[in-house]
Amino acid sequence: MVVPISFVSEHIETLEEIDIEYREIATEAGITNFRRVPALDTTPAFIEGLADLVQHALEGPEVNLDQAAALSNRVKLYPQDKWAWGWNNSSEVWNGRLAMLGFSAFLLELISGRGPLHALGLL
Question: What is the model's pLDDT at position 5?
Fold first, then answer.
């Protein structure tokens, strides 16, 4: 699963490089189930967040580049309803730990050439 975290829209790098070139590299490496997460594009929450940032900037005083690059306190990097989903700071820490454990297991399987993903034919 490829997550192009630095891209907010579908464009030549996601469509050509990731979807075509990197897929070919993955196929040559034996990966049979290559997927890419779609970009945010025109997701309503993303567009609303951008519009909010623009409106806030237009209402406020002129700022320098460093000030403009700082995230607003109103910008959330998580789903807007994270607390309603039962997320809290402790669950964020454990989520990160589990993600690193899963990534480590995946990396170990890639290096060793055997494991559950190989047994299922996914690698």
Answer: 78
